[in-house]
Amino acid sequence: MQSRVRARLRSLRADRGLTLAEAAGAAGMDPSSWSRLESGARRLTLDHLPVLARALGITVDDLLEAPVAPDPRVAATPTTRDGMTFWPLNHHPTGSGHHAFKIRLPSDRREAMPREHEGHDWLYVLSGRLRLVLGEEEFVLRPGEAAEFDTRTPHWIGVVDEPVELIGLFGPSGEKVHLRS
After folding, report:
1. Burial annotation 103-133 (CB, 10 A radius, 16+ → b, else e)
2. Residue 181: pLDDT band by 50, 70, 90 thresholds?
3. How many CB atoms lie within 10 A of CB 4?
4. Smallest Cα–Cα separation from 22: which of 62, 55, 50, 48?
5. What is the rounded distance in angstroms from the CA atom of residue 147 to the CA atom of residue 163?
6. Which fold is adopted by the domain 79-180?
7. Which of 115, 127, 151, 172 is the most exposed place for a label (fewest CB within 10 A)?
């Protein structure tokens, strides 16, 4: 509770554009006292709460309010590349790290054109039959099946006879190639 109220004090003061001196003056204390309350160098007590809340123009309930949890849902704006449609499944699909996508392959994606690049890919088939060319071998994956491979091996994904939907998880290097090369 202490750390939440300290963070809330700092946030509310900043939101209102108040300096330490202005907020402290409104609370009838010196700026160093307010600063120590915000930083945790001074322990907050119940007696502080009404004074701090009044200085910020809010109620004690507002000061004690838990932070609003961010919306966990991912706003999936699709992109299309090489006939494939990609829906991002993480909040920051262009940042560093691994990235997950729902991918739809159209029924006309049948001509194998293997490529290789740095990275590692994981695929999980949701619907349709996926054709995976990996080096000299070819595999057919059905719904519920998965594949994992090093992308330095020439590879390509397509369809057998109908559109395919899959989940793809790309390592940092692979994601850049699949979506931005």
Report:
1. bbbeeebeeeeeeeeebbbbbbbeebebbbb
2. very low
3. 13
4. 55
5. 18
6. Jelly Rolls (2.60.120)
7. 115
Sign of CA dihedral 82, 104, 89, 126: negative
pTM above 0.70, yes or no: no
Instruction: Give residue 87's Cα distance to chain centre.
Output: 13
Pair of tokens at residue 159: 């369809």
* CATH (one of 3.20.20.370, 3.40.50.2300, 3.10.20.90, 1.10.260.40) for 2-64: 1.10.260.40
Once rounded to an integer, what is the mean pLDDT over residues 99-120? 93
pLDDT digits (tens, 9 = 90+) for 19-49: 999 999 999 999 999 999 999 999 999 999 9
Burial call 51-89: b when 16+ CB within 10 Å, e when fewer? ebbebbeeeeeebeeeeeeeeeeeeeeeeeeeebbbbbe
> What's the rounded Cα separation, in Å, for the pair 9 and 171?
40
- Residue-level pLDDT at 177: 46
Lowest-confidence region among 27-31, 62-66, 142-146, 163-167: 62-66
Structure tokens at 177: 């190639």
